[in-house]
Design brief:
Layout (H helix, E strand, L loop, with lengths): L24 H14 L16 H6 L16 H6 L21 H12 L24 E6 L5 E6 L2 E6 L4 E5 L3 H5 L16 E4 L5 E6 L2 E7 L13 E5 L5 E5 L5 E5 L3 H86 L7 H83 L9 E4 L5 E5 L6 E4 L5 E2 L8 E7 L14 E4 L5 E6 L6 E7 L5 E9 L3 E6 L5 E6 L3 E6 L4 E7 L5 E6 L5 E6 L4 E5 L4 E6 L6 E6 L6 E5 L4 E4 L5 E4 L7 E6 L5 E6 L4 E5 L4 E6 L2
Antiparallel strand pairs: 1-2, 2-3, 3-4, 5-6, 6-7, 7-15, 8-9, 9-10, 11-12, 12-13, 13-14, 16-17, 17-18, 18-19, 20-21, 21-22, 22-23, 24-25, 25-26, 26-27, 28-29, 29-30, 30-31, 32-33, 33-34, 34-35
Helix pairs in contact: 1-4, 6-7
């Protein structure tokens, strides 16, 4: 028998709903929060103590409560405020950032995101699609001069030109060969993918650091190759009987230069001159210190005199108060005795036969006794105060006497120090003068006089020792072969991408005085100002001072002893970092706009800063106070540098003015010639040369002593 079992298909009305797709915070939620919420609730403003820039910060909340409760959208304060079901409606009406109420769709999405756990989007590394910069970008945002004054670097867009100042010639344009391999650039001469914002030569002048977007590149100058000689139809050189050399134009015989010294002698003179200027600056400071100490001593003497006068007054007052007590004690005894007698009489009067006159007399007697007690108490209190005044004046006299002694000793010490410094000045001047005298007798008879292949150098071969060289442009001594020096990329700090340890643009870079450390100032605009320190020997990051400023950093300068680092930024502040501890030890505030430049004076006692508020401020590091606020510019003061070891400050500005001023604000001179907005400024270590870069791409060079424009390097 065959059994057939029916196959039955059962249908159910129960359907499992698909889980909602996860909401991507960065793509779906953050855009509308950024426009209508984060604009007021961010790191910079943080209204109500609430920062909404990340889901973690929103969960943390502000002054009222936790902003969001993951998993509970309806219970989250932020949602309630946005939905206008909380005490305060957000965004508020009439807000200044143009924020509007969230739409029903946005509110629903916001709540759903919180219900799903308010999770942040997965972290993604931003990939930048680089393209060549537009043609025609010529503004020079950064320039630098080698300490010895032989090379200058100017950044135009992403190109960096190296100039040889003694010969007034272009040596090269830096080229990163790896950029040519990307195919974006067809010709050499490109150093970075983005605009170059900062430049700095190392203290020995052999390296150049160049800062751009999230990276700083280090370029090394190779040692000059053996000079290649070539005949010159343009120049003629002859050595005189005194071994000096006359350089003339072959056609017409015009004298270009009468050469009497070599590079070593010139550098020795420059160093001794710098020492002499620094010593003279110390004399000025010590004279100021003496004047200040004498003023302080005089004030303490006057204060002591006043204290003694007050002591005499207090002594007299004490005697008067002492004399006043005895009569009041006697009066109190007499009045109390009289009051007792009246009270006794009154006590004997029968209660059923009151004596109104006696009662009145008793009341008056008690009142007199009370008054006498009060008068005595006042007299005793006055006496106590007089005694305290005696003690106070005695303490004051002791303190002021000590202060006067210290102040007078300070004057003695300052005068003694001045005498020492004066001797140092005399020695420095004598050494300088001795070197100066040898300049005219230092040359030896040359074995031959030749010209370099590029025609920029006159080279003298010696019977012994290395050859000597001079510029055929002006006869200045130079290192042989330096006009054709080569610069190659040595290493890169930072990766140039989202993983870089350098935040956004490297707006400022500075070498430590010993050349061992490179400081880089950067930061995300309106978010943070970061400083990183790098070891020059290894190229490794050694310190990361994240969020040192509240906004991008635009200026850095190491103190002369290398112990402090001054920084200025878009947060309008100048901050001083102690490099031994990494802590901010001083914040100078007073600028009302971005701080664009900072510079220490050679003695490390004063610091100058320039700002987009058209002002220069001078800060006294020894006292921690502002010494001077200097105006007189019509536009931003874009650059600032103390000149050598002198108390002179070079400044560049958007009003085309390149002014030299003192720390007290007095104008020394103006260097004329600039015709466009000056974007950048640089000076040599000795302060004898000043360079300015403008928005038209012109690099100008001035001689400080004569205030004359020496050269213009056009784009």
């Amino acid at each position: 028998m065959r059994f057939i079992i029916p196959f039955v298909i059962l249908h159910s009305s129960f359907v499992i709903a698909a889980a909602p797709a996860p909401i991507d915070y960065d793509k779906q939620v953050r855009p509308f929060l950024k426009d209508n919420c984060i604009a007021c609730h961010n790191k910079t403003t943080t209204k109500g103590g609430l920062n909404m820039e990340t889901p973690e910060l929103m969960a943390k909340g502000g002054e009222s409560d936790k902003g969001i409760i993951p998993g509970k959208g309806a219970d989250s304060v932020m949602y309630q405020a946005a939905a206008h079901t909380w005490d305060s409606e957000m965004p508020p009406k009439g807000n200044k950032v143009g924020a509007v109420n969230l739409s029903a769709e946005q509110l629903s999405l916001f709540k759903a995101w919180i219900d799903q756990g308010a999770k942040a989007s997965p972290k993604k590394v931003q990939i930048i699609a680089w393209e060549p910069l537009p043609a025609g970008l010529q503004s020079i945002y950064a320039i630098a001069v080698a300490p010895q004054g032989d090379f200058a670097a100017a950044a135009r867009a992403n190109q960096i030109s190296i100039y040889h100042l003694p010969t007034q010639s272009l040596v090269t344009k830096l080229t990163d060969e790896t950029l040519l391999k990307t195919g974006l650039y067809k010709q050499p001469g490109v150093a970075h993918r983005d605009l170059v914002q900062s430049l700095a030569f190392s203290p020995d002048g052999t390296r150049l650091a160049t800062g751009s977007f999230r990276e700083v590149k280090l370029w090394k100058r190779s040692a000059p190759a053996a000079a290649a000689f070539a005949p010159s139809a343009k120049f003629t050189a002859t050595q005189e009987a005194d071994n000096s050399i006359k350089l003339t134009e072959t056609a017409g015989g015009k004298l270009i230069a009468h050469i009497k010294s070599d590079l070593a002698a010139e550098q020795a003179l420059a160093q001794h001159s710098l020492t002499a200027v620094r010593a003279a600056l110390e004399v000025t400071y010590q004279n100021e210190a003496i004047k200040k100490a004498e003023t302080d001593a005089t004030e303490q003497t006057n204060r002591l005199k006043k204290a003694n006068e007050l002591a005499d007054v207090a002594k007299k007052a004490l005697e008067d108060k002492k004399k006043d007590i005895k009569p009041k004690e006697d009066a109190k005894v007499a009045v109390e005795k009289a009051a007792k007698e009246v009270a006794d009489q009154l006590a004997k009067v029968p209660q059923d036969k009151p004596d109104e006159a006696l009662k009145k007399k008793n009341t008056e007697a008690q009142e007199k006794a009370t008054k006498a007690t009060a008068d005595l108490k006042l007299a005793q209190e006055a006496f106590t105060r007089a005694e305290a005044a005696i003690t106070d004046t005695a303490n004051e006299i002791k303190l002021v006497t000590e202060n006067e002694k210290k102040a007078k000793q300070t004057v003695v010490d300052a005068k003694a120090r001045l005498e020492v410094v004066k001797k140092e000045v005399e020695k420095a001047n004598a050494d300088r003068d001795l070197i100066a005298k040898t300049l005219t007798t230092g040359l030896k008879k040359a074995k031959s006089l030749q010209f370099s292949a590029n025609g920029l150098e006159l080279i003298a071969e010696q019977d012994s020792g290395p050859p000597l060289a001079w510029s055929t442009t002006n006869g200045k001594p130079i290192a042989p072969g330096s006009s054709s020096a080569t610069w190659t990329l040595e290493r890169t700090f930072g990766t140039g991408d989202g993983k870089s340890q350098i935040t956004d643009r490297a707006n400022s870079i500075a070498f430590s005085p010993d050349g061992k450390t490179l400081a880089i100032g950067s930061g995300e605009p309106s978010r943070s100002g970061d400083i990183t320190l790098w070891d020059m020997a290894t190229g490794k990051l050694t310190k990361d001072y994240a969020e040192r400023h509240l906004d991008s950093i635009f200026a850095l300068d190491f103190s002369p002893d290398g112990k402090l680092l001054a920084s200025g930024g878009a947060d309008k502040a100048v901050r001083i970092t102690d490099l031994s501890t990494g802590k901010v030890v001083k914040v100078f505030e007073g600028h009302t706009h971005h701080v664009l430049g900072v510079s220490w004076r050679a003695d490390g006692r004063l610091l100058a800063s320039s700002g987009a508020d058209n002002v220069v401020k001078v800060w006294d590091w020894t006292t921690g106070d502002r010494r001077k606020s200097v105006d007189g510019w019509d536009k931003e003061v874009t650059g600032i540098h103390y000149l050598g070891a002198a108390d002179q400050i070079a400044t560049s500005a958007g009003d085309n003015k390149l002014r030299l001023i003192t720390s007290d604000g007095g104008e020394v001179k103006q260097l004329a010639g600039a015709t466009a907005f000056l974007q950048s400024l640089a000076t040599t270590k000795s302060g004898d040369l000043v360079l300015g870069g403008d928005q038209d791409g012109n690099l100008r060079e001035w001689d400080v002593a004569t205030a004359k424009e020496i050269a213009v390097f056009k784009p």
